[in-house]
Fold each of these.
Amino acid sequence: MPQVDARPVAVLVSGRGTNLQALLDAAAAPTYPARIVRVISSRPGVAALDRARAAGVEGVVVHHRAFADRPAFEDALHAALVESGAELVVLAGFMRLLTDGFVGRWRDRLINIHPSLLPAFKGLDTHARALDAGVRLHGCTVHFVRPAMDAGPIIAQAAVPVGPDDTPDVLAARVLGAEHRLLPAVVRWWAEGRLSVHAERVRVAGAAAPDGVLWGPVVG
Ligand code: GRF
């Protein structure tokens, strides 16, 4: 059972939901300081909604196609979030761009996980682009959301080595493993009140690097 005073978090998804699963699994531990109160999907019929159901968490669809324009979609999203009582909103594979208005309403209460070491490789196909660029380290980033895509104060990053024979899928799987450790760690820090933003940089009070999340380059 989650802690009674665990802080309420909503997760926005659009697809398979493995990062959501990592959060659900973490939140199932009695000592985890956050609980997932609602999962909102921009599309019906996605695996993430099945994961929410299996964990006993309410899943809601706010289908972007059901609204005349983006502001109307975002108003519905906002209403569903307010109704849930969430104090933090996590974008975990949420595939809609959000406008300044929505992002402003949730400023410093809205985080995103992105599969690259930002500011490198914003946008899509990050693993193929990392391989094309020949980088030796790749990884993932959790950041507070600002209006520009994949921009905003960085909370934490996890690096993984890039192997000489990696394909985009192999590299994606390695990064995903890091994502699944990093995101629950960041939500824990938030729930423990450790995160603050000063002049667009994040301070994490008293937190050591999550064990096993950070790697140095493989040498020799
Ligand atoms: C992850 O790679 C995440 O970093 C990106 O979208 C993907 C979502 O995967 N934003 P999943 O739905 O959590 O499995």
Amino acid sequence: MSKKIAVVEDEAELATLIEYNLSRAGFTVLLFPGGAQTMSGLEAAEPDLIILDVMLPGQDGFELCRQIRRTGKLARVPVVFLTARSEEVDRVLGLELGGDDYITKPFSPRELVARVKAHLRRADSDAEPVVTTLTLGPFRLDRGARRVWQADRELELTPTEFKLLEFFLTHTGTAWSREQLLRDVWGEQHFVTPRTVDVHIRRLREQIEEKPDEPDWLITVRGFGYRFETR
Ligand code: CA
């Protein structure tokens, strides 16, 4: 069965171009022009991936992404933002809205298709049933359920943050460069930059550290990268 991609984009011409290229790559494409019906439409569609324009009439892409991450059915669906300006990229990364990637306009259809494929491959490999539970210090990670707790508190992590924490919990004590983390955690997505790593580390720290600026677990290795410490 072909994968379903929801595209939320109010510019009809651009939406059609995206639809054309994704359809040609074998995907089923559902177009949403934005507006009040978008969330209910997305819930009904149950897409495998959502492409989300930032500038939309009514609720913008950022607000939609927040809602997507709070909606059980959609919470773990990869979200790729389409942004027109570099300031928006800063917001995507800076506000940590739970998006998985962003593409700046104008973009090449080939690049878009490649990124969509990379995210879907990753979502597939993430979905492979693994029944092991990993416990380390106060952390308990259930790979099958894709849930993680710190002491009694369940952490709310995006798919990328989950994967990053899973990596650190299984590779403690070693210093990892940003490039190594990109290769081992992000895998086939060649589009992410070392800065992406820093953004996700910061977000992860906000979840697991008592004082994110003075981390106890996720330590900065100056001039190199990061190390996860067990106490
Ligand atoms: Ca727009």
